[in-house]
Amino acid sequence: MNPVLKLLLEGEPLSTEQMGEVLGMSETEIAVELEKLKDEGILLGWRPIINPEFDEDVVRAVIEVKISPEREGGFDRLAERISKFDRVESCYLMSGAYDLMLVIHAENLKRIASFVFEKLATLEGVVSTATHFMLKAYKEQGYTIARAAAAEDKPPVSP
Fold first, then answer.
1. What's the rounded Cα separation, in Å, for the pair 140 and 144?
2. Whole-angstrom Cα distance, residue 83 to residue 123?
3. Domain residue ranges in the chain
4. Is the pTM for the entire model greater than 0.90?
5. In the predicted structure, residue 48 carries a pLDDT above the cut 70
């Protein structure tokens, strides 16, 4: 694996100067590698990992979608069309009972439901959907979400 990419994936955010120090490369060499990673479509962007419980006004859901593959485009054309909706955070082709898995977000449950029945289910080629609401996050993109145990959650101590 590219050492600059590995450092980005495994470490904290670093400046190009700091990356160069860690890897024994010049700042210019790091900048060239970063541009190369962007040009090759490997590094798509920089995004912090946010605790999903930080914003209580956002509801996230996983939607499984069964679709009919198209003669010319297979699953790709419809998956790309679905991916363009603003609510869709992620879209994956998968094996199993459903063909696509979407991760979406909205302000409330009703908005997610209306997205499913107004936008998603009405698309030609969508056969069926199954929606699962995310209730609580324990780990996000490799980071465990730490929680302080509430006093009422602790079992009573017997003498």
1. 6
2. 13
3. 3-39, 59-135
4. no
5. no
